[in-house]
Structures are given as C-alpha cells and as structure tokens.
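REQUEST FORM: STRUCTURE PREDICTION
Request ID: SP-0412
Submitted by: Lab K.M.
Chain count: 1
Length (residues): 130
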Amino acid sequence: MKYTVTLNGKKYEVEVTETEAAITAVTDVVYTSPAPAPVASPAAAPVPAPTAVSAAGPVGGGTKVLSPMPGTVLSVKCAIGDAVKAGQVLFILEAMKMENEIVAPADGTVRQILAAKGQSVDTDQLLAVL
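STATUS: Completed
RESULT:
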C-alpha cells in the first residue's frame, strides 16, 4: 500500500507491505513536492543589557540566586532595591517549553540583577544577588 506522508511541511510517498509477522516498512521514500523557499525571518529585537549596577559584576557576599537549568528568561519579577521574602518569584525561566518560577532562596533586598528578559542562561548561572 502506498501512502503520502507530510513531515515538516514536506510530502513523502511511502510504500508499506504487510507480512505474516507484522507490517514492515518502507521500500522507497520519494520526495513529491519542492522545498519551500526560505522565508526571511524578522530581525529579533535587541536584548536589553542588565542595569548599570549589575554590569559591574557580582557583589561580594550576599545570597546568590542561580539558574537551576539552562533556558531563556521570560520575565524579571523584581527590581534592584526590592525587599523580597523567601519563596517569592524573582524570574520566570522558560526551559523545554515549560515556564519555571525561580524564587528567592532567603529573605533580603535585591542588590543586583544579572539577567535580563530574553537572555539565555546556563545551569548555575548567577541571576541575582540579594
């Protein structure tokens, strides 16, 4: 039996044969439609740089807020000088199509923010200092 399968926008013709044991696949794969022309993607908006206070590097001491996983900062829920409580959401981090809340590990005042909305971060990267 022949089937037409669409995968990632491309159409393929697939032939499948049935045997006594099971259905076995594919003798030929034939590309049946031309590849779509590349579409120019709009230029991404520039990522704002962290605030001038955070550009100086991490402040000595203080409680560090680290990224638990690699991902992209979707939003920053705090500002320098904010008083925060342990468990308060400071950042929303998108990782593997899921939104993760990054919370304050302890009570304190935000001394530095080292991550900005849209920025990619790695595991254990410093996001903020309380």
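NOTES: The longest strand covers residues 89-95.
Reviewed by: T.R.
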